[in-house]
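Incident log, structure service

09:12 report received: a user says their structure output differs between two submissions of the same chain.
09:20 pulled the input from the user's history:
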Amino acid sequence: MPRLQKNDNFIDKTFTVIADIVLKILPTSKDEKRAFCYYRDGMSAQSEGEYAEALENYYEALILEEDPYDRSYILYNIGLIYASNGEHIKALEYYHQALELNFKLPQALNNIAVIYHYQGIKAANQQQSKISKSMFNKAAKYWRQAIYLAPNNYIEAQNWLKTTGRIYNISD
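09:34 re-ran on a clean worker, output below:
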């Protein structure tokens, strides 16, 4: 099961060694340990652009992982892959599932906002002003939530909210 890492650098090797040691000494079930191995292998594959392999590992981890907090990160990473492949609807589904398990995940809120903002720009370019406004308002809603959780992050989003007059809650 362990993935053979192709681009091992010092940090990756160190993380892998430490994770393996911690995994051996932690009082966790066999399934939890296997879930972590799949998750780790998924992250490794994802970082190398091997998205199909990463998804396989994440789906295996989801089968085994019971902890809602840990599941939220698996779901979030699945959403990242779908978003990077341009499958925005699927990405949104996984980001929302992650948030159902862990509402304090500002990066998921930010990524949802990015997708809505992108859709707003597309609609604006196609002269669909009602759809554009709706998408921009949705983006604003999620960016405000992300910024509330991580006030020092998402500076570009904060600037966009200010310059568009969406910094405060308007009719979303």
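09:41 both user submissions now match this output. Likely a transient worker issue. Closing.
09:42 reviewer note: The longest helix spans residues 129-149. Residues 27-102 form a domain with the Serine Threonine Protein Phosphatase 5, Tetratricopeptide repeat fold (CATH 1.25.40.10).
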